[in-house]
Amino acid sequence: MVKANTATAHKLARMVYRLLKFGQAYVDRGDQAYEQHFKNRLLRNLQKQATHLGYQLILQTETVS
User: How far is CA 26 from the centre of its chain?
Assistant: First the structure.
């Protein structure tokens, strides 16, 4: 938990530094961007775990009818 708090504080500090030094405005990317980033990270981690265990993942696209 301590590492997570430190990482979050460091991320916020970098954001504030950029805002102050370069005058950049904070842009909230929204929920959809967060969800996409989360999904990509999850898929990447699953690929690594499958490779580590000797499996190969085959991604399939879901079709909605």
Answer: 18
Q: Which pLDDT belongs to residue 65? A: 65
Quote the distance between the C-alpha of residue 38 and its chain's center: 5
Using DSSP, state whether 48 is helix, strand or coil.
helix
- pTM across the whole model: 0.54
Q: Which domain holds residue 14?
A: 2-52
- The span from the CA of 42 to the CA of 31, in Å, is 16
Residue 65 lies in a domain: no
Q: What is the distance between the alpha carbons of residues 9 and 1, in angstroms, rounded to a whole number? A: 12
Q: Which helix (H) or strand (E) holds 13?
A: helix 2-22
